[in-house]
């Protein structure tokens, strides 16, 4: 089945370009377009796309507020945030709001297509140019550590996996670090996300830093 994508951007020329790129792929389908945040939320509710490509800065309702509403509604649609600036001050709020990824608008077409597929498959990503900055920002300015009771349901191994995810290790790297099979690591990651009510790996990173589980410089990228 095709992955259905909603395009949410206030610039018609941007939406047109995104549509041309995505519809050239046999497994991707543009389900609709929205020119502002309010329309994006309404379109997600009406069309139930797999992924929404959401501009951060839009009229009526910005992309971050729109994502908060979409997540709060319980929709399964995953959000890939788009911006022109790799130093966008809003990227941190976007990730906390529930975005599954962050990509620059000037990314090559093949990178955009790959990003949509990854997010639709339940993965998460950040543009390489901002990944290290994002994680280091959480490390530099962590939220006050919250009660540890929220992690009581995790086994010792699952907590260990969560900390490695927060450091930015891939499943293969975690497997090598812990001398486990890749499938076993994937199962642990899935259980961690389910137990903590997290959507994806990006949210796991945010969660770990905001709860004070990963002090200091993470030193790695997602």
TrEMBL record:
Record-level GO BP terms: phosphorelay signal transduction system; regulation of DNA-templated transcription
Q: Which UniProt keywords apply?
A: DNA-binding, Phosphoprotein, Transcription, Transcription regulation
| Response regulatory domain segment(s) | 4-120
Sites of 4-aspartylphosphate modification: 55
Molecular function terms in GO for this entry? Answer: DNA binding
User: Record's InterPro entries?
Assistant: CheY-like_superfamily (IPR011006), NreC/VraR/RcsB-like_REC (IPR058245), Sig_transdc_resp-reg_C-effctor (IPR016032), Sig_transdc_resp-reg_receiver (IPR001789), Tscrpt_reg_LuxR_C (IPR000792), WalR-like (IPR039420)
Q: Which PANTHER family match?
A: TRANSCRIPTIONAL REGULATORY PROTEIN NARL-RELATED (PTHR43214:SF24), TWO-COMPONENT RESPONSE REGULATOR (PTHR43214)
Q: What is this protein called?
A: Two component transcriptional regulator, LuxR family
Which organism was this protein described from? Blastococcus haudaquaticus
């Amino acid at each position: 089945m095709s992955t259905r994508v909603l395009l949410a951007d206030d610039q018609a020329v941007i939406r047109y370009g995104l549509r041309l790129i995505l519809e050239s792929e046999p497994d991707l389908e543009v389900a609709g377009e929205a020119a502002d945040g309010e329309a994006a939320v309404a379109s997600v509710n009406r069309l139930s796309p797999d992924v929404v490509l959401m501009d951060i800065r839009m009229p009526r309702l910005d992309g971050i507020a729109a994502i908060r509403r979409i997540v709060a509604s319980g929709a399964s649609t995953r959000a890939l945030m788009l911006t022109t600036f790799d130093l966008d001050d809003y990227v941190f709020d976007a990730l906390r709001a529930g975005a599954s990824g962050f990509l620059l608008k000037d990314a090559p077409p093949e990178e955009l297509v790959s990003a949509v597929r990854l997010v639709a498959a339940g993965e998460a990503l950040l543009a390489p140019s901002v990944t290290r900055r994002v994680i280091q920002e959480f490390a530099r300015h962590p939220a006050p550590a919250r009660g540890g009771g929220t992690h009581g349901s995790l086994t010792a191994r699952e907590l260990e996996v969560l900390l490695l995810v927060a450091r930015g290790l891939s499943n293969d790297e975690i497997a090598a670090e812990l001398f486990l099979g890749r499938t076993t690591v994937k199962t642990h990651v899935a259980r961690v996300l389910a137990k903590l009510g997290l959507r994806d790996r990006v949210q796991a990173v945010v969660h770990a830093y905001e709860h004070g589980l990963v002090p200091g410089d993470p030193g790695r990228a997602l």
